[in-house]
Amino acid sequence: MAQTESDPEELLELSSETRAILEEHSLRPLWEVEDEMGTALDDPEPGVWKWDDIREAIDHIEEDVPIADLPPGFQRRVAVPINTAHAISNSIYVGIQTVSPGETAPSHRHGANALRFSIDGHEDMKTVVAGEEFPMQDNDLITTPQWEWHDHVNDSDETAAWLDVLDLPLVLDSMNARNVFENHELERQPVTKTPGYWDSQYGNGRPEGGAGDGSIPGPFEGIREPTPPYRFGWDEMLEALRQRADNDEPDPHDGYSLSYVNPATGSPPLFPTMTFRAQLLQEGPTDPHFHNATEVYFVIEGEGATHVGDEALEWSQWDVFIVPPDEIHHHEPDDEAILLGMSDRPVLEAFNFYAEAEPSS
Ligand SMILES: [Fe+2]
Ligand SMILES: [Fe+2]
Q1: Which residues make Cβ contacts (< 8 Å) with residue 80, sequence separation at least 6?
Q2: If you measure from the C-alpha of residue 162 to the centroid of ligand 1, how many angstroms do you get, rounded to a whole number?
């Protein structure tokens, strides 16, 4: 019998003696290993988390558990959309956090990068970062970068809710590395700066010679310019989006979009691991495309659907949804809509792994 007619499985059959030696020394042949690569973590599924459901859940959590009763550690009262093992994706984590009137989420710092995107904000709801109190008004984005002390203080008479976004699953799950962490000795860090201090360092007017020394904070090492504490006020972002819509052509896949820049470099991505866009979509479908980066979206305003593969994810204001890697997708708002787009694309780009294409029709 010619060899080409042999069963390929049979050709790969190892003798029991070889198999025993491999097992004894914790070795395996590549052709078996490569089939299993990429299957250790759950694949994220396309999905949408509706605000009404999130709200119901966080209202109940808020009734049951004061922040002060939470076990020491993160001490944050958060509802976390679950899609993979512990988060909405294997790279980006989002959670919806609430702080009741008079409560404080105690001060801590960690290796993971984080930001807050205010959903239901108030000028007396403050995120304190690196000595400055940043007010959290609707749709403001406030960075709480790597190794900066941060606590959240609600001096208003309303419950504040916001979106937390971190690169935790990338560090903890995908890389199985440690999130270096420390609690502050005080519940609230001392406020040592006047309001607007960090904007005076990294805004449009800067100290001569530049702000900061560009070194990576704390015990960390790397090559990226660290992201400073910063508040991106929504009014300016919205005005810039409107200017784009009035003057520019939209991106065929993402509408009129503005990237949040790392204020230290003046360029995106905001963090080495995650990039963020405010996207204004006008009525009608965008062009489909796919890419190996994960996209997570928060609906700032408007309604519509995002088509992911065969699924239509219907969304409206304050919903959260995910477009997993390599899924063909396009957006279709009913009328004008504004999304916060979040992506792990910088991680792939840093190592020349990012790939994007349009489907062949
Ligand atoms: Fe934190
Ligand atoms: Fe996309």
Answers
A1: 86, 87, 88, 93, 94, 95, 96
A2: 13
